[in-house]
Amino acid sequence: MRNICMKVSYDGTNYSGFQTQPDGNAIQDYLEKAIDMLTGEKVKIHASGRTDAGVHAYGQVFHFHTTSKIPVERWCMALNSRLPRDIMVTEAREVPLDFHSRRSAKRKTYRYTINANQFPDLFRRNTELHHPGKLNVEAMSEGLKYLIGTHDFTSFASRHSTKPSHIRTVYDVHIERDQSMCRPGTRDQGLIHLYITGNGFLQHMVRIIAGTLLEVGKGRKKPEDIASILEAKDRMKAGPTAESKGLILWNVEYENFN
Amino acid sequence: MRNICMKVSYDGTNYSGFQTQPDGNAIQDYLEKAIDMLTGEKVKIHASGRTDAGVHAYGQVFHFHTTSKIPVERWCMALNSRLPRDIMVTEAREVPLDFHSRRSAKRKTYRYTINANQFPDLFRRNTELHHPGKLNVEAMSEGLKYLIGTHDFTSFASRHSTKPSHIRTVYDVHIERDQSMCRPGTRDQGLIHLYITGNGFLQHMVRIIAGTLLEVGKGRKKPEDIASILEAKDRMKAGPTAESKGLILWNVEYENFN
């Protein structure tokens, strides 16, 4: 028995999320089908975490056990030729049998993208939230700082979260701006990429953080409100859940495997 | 009678090119339909030039004559709400009646994008040519220089070109590299954006230039071969026509209107 670990990118637009669905239209379903076509084995894959419908991944990680003898360097090409064009594996390694994509993960990074130009970018319209209104990006950056550290993130979790503990650690959170496509003489404010790295994330956590941050950017909330929202442990105090299409699972890090 | 000039972006993936088609699936058809829905007038729009099926535009320009009294600042929103999501007008102006999008154009810029990473970028797969093999980008840049100036571009034009003269002037041509998505420790070479600005372009000209440049990058042709290919005035001497999806009409410039 071998344990194969892979990195996968996907455009989540046309899928019902990562986790297997009765309609077979989840990313997991297509990956398992491709592995079955290749090896003749009905394996169950385990990812670092689920992503919701419409959420994308640049560096999602999953593993599975197999008796197949296909050398690791062949897996990517072999699977990609059996996958839809918007799902693509980019790395394969053989890992110790006790490696687990979710349990062994040390840090995860998500990116949420807001396009604050007057017009959406046609070519990225499925991977950005369009918000043409004025945003105070400095206030947004300031508000973000309150998230760093170990907190109870109940205010930033879906009410349907079933996790026994809502305590998580955020290691880093920052904004990167891309103003390369701003048209001179307009109110274009460029792309705002919000990167957040932590030891784990609750359901909708990054999207609620993005939605709350937008309120700060609009001036409806103050940067320091983020601290009191955290303290309240009350989902009602935070902003709305931002649309899934702006979210991408960027990277997952492991102790001895990156 | 008024002359309205607009800028339009489109993702050409799902269309049969700019110019009106019997099946009604050209960009022009959708724009004219939207104007008809808005004004009740069956206008004919004139663009700065056609783009082929699968070719995109960031800053295509077109104009049309209308008796509609809608103020210019309302046109963009009004048309965009009547256009498919992958066609978007981003600017509208009233121009002198003798302004013509094609005849008045002074300079046009196209961009051709080659992704030279090991894997295609899922999120840009419709707007880049994927070429994972080793490319000598310095040789490509050197080869490009021979195109600058006024030349007979017969070698770089479709055999079906019906233009009486193949003499065009290339003002600027350069490569911009984007290595932000290269994964360390891999043979990823990043994105290669080829920008070319001229007073006009022949059918397939930029795509044949891109295809020939790829031959230079692969070492099958030398940079200085570009000079002798130009001189030969023979389409057979140049490289293949590169795929349409990597091409985008970037910008069109006018004397008193940019």
From TrEMBL, chains A, B:
Group of enzyme by EC: isomerase
Residue intervals of the Pseudouridine synthase I TruA alpha/beta domain: 8-102, 145-255
SUPFAM superfamilies cross-referenced by the UniProt entry: Pseudouridine synthase
GO biological process: tRNA pseudouridine synthesis
InterPro entries named in the record: PsdUridine_synth_cat_dom_sf (IPR020103), PsdUridine_synth_TruA (IPR001406), PsdUridine_synth_TruA_a/b_dom (IPR020097), PsdUridine_synth_TruA_C (IPR020095), TruA/RsuA/RluB/E/F_N (IPR020094)
Active site (UniProt): D52
Domain of life: Bacteria
UniProt-annotated binding residues for substrate: Y110
EC number(s) per entry: 5.4.99.12
Catalytic activity entry: uridine(38/39/40) in tRNA = pseudouridine(38/39/40) in tRNA
Keyword Cell cycle: no
Keywords per UniProt: Isomerase, tRNA processing
Sample GO molecular function, one term: RNA binding
Family per similarity comment: Belongs to the tRNA pseudouridine synthase TruA family.
Function: Formation of pseudouridine at positions 38, 39 and 40 in the anticodon stem and loop of transfer RNAs.
Complexes and interactors: Homodimer.
Name of this chain's protein: tRNA pseudouridine synthase A
